[in-house]
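The methods section describes the discrete structure representation at length, but only in general terms. What matters is that the chain and its backbone geometry are given together, residue for residue. Nothing conveys this as quickly as seeing an actual entry. For illustration, here is how one protein appears when written out as sequence plus structure tokens:
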Amino acid sequence: MSRIPIRIRLTLAFVVALGVVLAGLGVVVYTEFEDSLNDNTDQALRSRATDISGVIERSGPRLSAPGAERFVESDESFAQVLDAGARVVDGTSRADSRPLLTADEVSRARADPLTLSRDGAVEEGDPARLFAVPVGDLVLVVGQDVEDNEEALGTLRLLLGIGLPIALALASIAGYAVAAAALRPVEAMRRKAADVSDARPGERLPLPEADDEIRRLGETLNAMLARLEAAIEREKGFVADASHELRTPLASLKTELELALRRERSPEELRRALRSASEEADRLIRLADDLLVLARSDRGTLPLEIERVPARELLNRVAARFRTSGSEVRVAVPDGLELHADTLRLEQALGNLVANATTHGDGPVTISARRSDGTVELHVEDEGAGVPPEFAERAFERFTRVDEARSGGGAGLGLAIVAAVARAHGGRAGLSPRARGTDAWMRLPALMDSS
């Protein structure tokens, strides 16, 4: 069933449902029509029985008595009088020999008027409708051939047997046409989607004019295409920027090695060249590590080892690392404050913020932590000239620098890694320019599930 096209499945479901409805409707119409014919016949029989009973009560149980036969139509109707033993007392010419009722039926008729249908009541094979009513100790049976009723029912069965399948077939064709028309926009979108590629950006799926579910689906898919194009553009930009950033240290490393090999060098000169090459290799390793962190963050697979981390210990370790190089780094954190985070990733992010502050800022750098509305905020503040407000809005984008003069040779990935680490912890990062200096911060949930 799953291999059948949707329009066929819709048509089949429509046909089955309509077939059940039409069959039920046919049964109801046929039953009502049959009941109506029987009711009319029974009403005529009751009226005829009442008239004949009156004659019998006045003139005796003889259907040939004056006034009795005129209530019986010889071609279609008949009458019979039976005694308690189901013996014929008298009857019309068509019913003067064989009893129309059995002994049990006579007993029931003597207790209460009885209506029943019987085939071959007076002539073999002819259907008849009988009505029996007590008249004193006798039972009067009045009957009528219902062959005309059967013919009418047969005609109705023929009409229903031919008309309902035709109606079902026409409705099926109409249902298929409606389903095909409804799914035509989907097929148009499918054909267009098959042609969409990154070689022709900006292509979108055609939308139907009707404001319905299919149009909303198309709008959703077009929005998804726009997001995918944006992601592809970011990926291309990321690869291009990474290639550009890798080119510089690789070129420097190659230059150092070529200079060392160009002529005979003293041991001291070779050590200087190797030391410079080692620095460039370290720069390449750091850049590769940073790119790996960002790539994992993009895939949502940045590994974290969540544990309980005392905030004071974390901030003191980060500060101590920079104090050894002569930077003045202060720590401000309340007692007892703890984080549920990955210690190494958080140290990496805070280290990037402090490195930016010591490189681009001025005066002492302050690392602080505090609770705020169910979160823990980590701040790195400096007293430098600050950053332009327009840069603060895009500072956490990759390969972004305030300007090349202040870049310090960095790749512009430090703040991007800060943002990636914050997102991995379920938080976010930001940069708030001040009148003097800059406040770089990370906001993390107060608690995280370590599972």
User: Anything to note?
Assistant: The domain at 306-445 is CATH 3.30.565.10 (Heat Shock Protein 90).
